[in-house]
Amino acid sequence: MNNYFVYIILCENDSFYTGITNDLMKRFDKHKKRKGANYTKMHKPLKYISVWEVENINLALKIEYYIKTKSKNIKTLFIENNRLLKKYFNEEKKQNIKIKSMNKNKLNKINKILNEENKK
Fold it and tell me: Which parts of the sequence belong to the GIY-YIG domain (predicted)?
């Protein structure tokens, strides 16, 4: 079983892009090279600002859609306290999903590696 990641990227105009992947490094590279989503072709992606890990692609797609339907204020809450996504989703959808929030230290390490690779 392959785990998937649901992520939010900060773009250069202070907007957010939400997506899913099973490989964070490759996916961000595609966004940077303008080979990812149409949104990140027009709005330069800067870094991952929140990442959650889930068990399968179906759950990842549901959570991605859920996040995309929320206002920027709610997305900001999820970014500031990434455990709130699970709480809000479970309460609104009457489910008990398994979702693992990536801690900020690990997220910073990933962004640092991506930043170093982009300088090459």
Answer: 2-77
